[in-house]
Write a structure and sequence with these properties.
alpha+beta; FAD/NAD(P)-binding domain; Alpha-Beta Plaits; 6-stranded antiparallel sheet
């Protein structure tokens, strides 16, 4: 890309980010207010405990041996070959485990790491195109790539990198088997139409229906079909960034590369959020900086709580489950949500809050995703230490589900909101402008809908601003 276009793009991005910053701060605060207002009994005090549990989640990567796979596999064509919606759904649920299809392979699968890196640099070497490096092949990184490619077509080269891998060249499976609450308008005419056609099969009307990991796989395959390249390797991407003609870096890592950002001039910021239409009543949050992000505190208490999910509950079980929850939920221990799939596929999701004394227990019990039936065999003494309402709810589910139901308990996770604030200029890394999207910008709260849906809306607005320069 020539110098003048590059300069125009930097100016447009700076204008966009700083004009949007107040709106993004308001969006982010919706989740903080909800948690403090409705789940304050589950806010934790023990910061050391949080750090300890986070470290437990780290894993050692063991690379698998190289394996063969089908060349030129077309997921969309394969889905068309199934007659019924249930067959299509079954295939999508199993796609992560079908190792011979190459679904999770990058664009340089037959090359060594060294050669793959050289090929990636060559792909981003054009002086006439916008060369974009997206770091993070999750939902926001993939949506950004697909959306920008649809708008700019041959005017841009986009390479998406990820270091969450099974082996060099093969990304680890997309594991977030979570229901989504995403309206179709977020995708219609914004991504390749092959995606929206699949959404139509599974949805109940106005929502995409598919689970989060299905959406990610579909976006990945659609990107590949549209000449977006991928590089999956464990090493940092510094060599690729500093030695190629990258014009723009996009951080879609969920905040994992915080060291790329400068610290903010203001370490502690008082934020007053109006709570009525007259703007004369406020909630006051202190935003405190750590690792180049600002974290919200209310009355010196950090907004952070732990939760786990129960997934895969058939909708026909919802009446019994809802009755129990409604009668035993005075402190908002449970959050129940009915999905947006069509009737024959639809499921219910339950998010369970965890009180501080129980956090370590759940981290020990749910080191990985487990079938709900395994809960029966946990140590009785351990279960007696857990909030009895959780134990009773699981008993009800076990007593009402059928043998065909595949219901799982997911590992605990924390809602630890943070936001990236900028001071005067957009950050750079190796002299390349770097912009955050998705959870790299701010972390949303699924219970108020200020997360993924708003991230996708923002990404579309961002790419529209970028296209003004071309």
């Amino acid at each position: 890309m020539n110098k003048q276009t590059n300069k125009n793009l930097d100016l447009e991005l700076k204008k966009f980010f700083f004009e949007k910053a107040p709106e993004l701060l308001t969006r982010a605060s919706m989740g903080w207010i909800y948690t403090f207002s409705y789940e304050k009994d589950f806010l934790i005090d023990n910061f050391y405990l949080k750090e300890t549990n986070q470290s437990k989640k780290k894993k050692n990567i063991k690379y698998l041996k190289k394996r063969s796979f089908k060349q030129n596999f077309d997921l969309f064509e394969k889905l068309q070959s199934f007659f019924s919606i249930k067959e299509k759904w079954k295939f999508m649920k199993e796609i992560n485990t079908k190792k011979n299809l190459g679904v999770l392979n990058d664009s340089f699968e037959n090359a060594t790491d060294k050669v793959a890196l050289q090929l990636a640099k060559k792909f981003l070497s054009s002086n006439k195109k916008l060369n974009v490096l997206v770091i993070g092949a999750g939902c926001c990184g993939l949506f950004f790539a697909n959306n920008l490619k649809k708008k700019l077509g041959k005017l841009t080269n986009i390479l998406v990198c990820d270091n969450r891998i099974q082996q060099p060249g093969v990304r680890e499976p997309y594991s977030r088997n979570w229901l989504t609450n995403l309206p179709k308008f977020l995708f219609t005419n914004k991504v390749d139409k092959s995606l929206t056609e699949v959404f139509d099969w599974f949805s109940n009307g106005n929502y995409i229906g598919v689970t989060l990991n299905m959406m990610e796989i579909l976006l990945l395959q659609s990107c590949k079909k549209n000449d977006i390249k991928f590089l999956f390797k464990d090493d940092p991407y510094d060599d690729l960034i500093k030695e190629s003609n990258v014009d723009l870096l996009v951080d879609a890592t969920g905040g994992k590369i915080y060291e790329c950002y400068p610290s903010h001039k203001e370490k502690n910021i008082l934020l007053k959020i109006p709570t009525n239409q007259n703007n004369n009543e406020y909630l006051s949050f202190f935003l405190k900086e750590k690792n180049n992000y600002h974290y919200p505190f209310f009355l010196d208490k950090q907004i952070i709580n732990y939760q786990f999910k129960i997934v895969g509950i058939a909708e026909n079980l919802s009446t019994v489950i809802s009755k129990y929850i409604n009668e035993n939920n005075n402190d908002n221990l449970f959050y129940i949500w009915v999905g947006k799939l069509n009737k024959e596929l639809n499921e219910v999701l339950i998010i369970v809050n965890i009180k501080e004394p129980d956090i370590e227990i759940f981290y020990d019990l749910l080191k990985k995703r487990i079938c709900i039936k395994e809960f029966e065999f946990f140590d009785k003494k351990t279960k007696s230490r857990i909030d009895n309402r959780i134990v009773e709810l699981i008993k009800i589910i076990l007593n009402t589900k059928t043998n065909l139901d595949q219901i799982y308990l997911e590992p605990p996770f924390s809602y630890t909101p943070r936001i990236k604030l900028f001071y005067k200029n957009l950050p750079t890394y190796y002299d390349k402008t770097i912009i955050p999207i998705g959870d790299s910008y701010y972390t949303g709260n699924a219970k108020v809908g200020n997360g993924l849906g708003m991230h996708l809306l923002y990404i579309d607005e961002l790419t529209k601003a970028m296209t003004k320069c071309f």
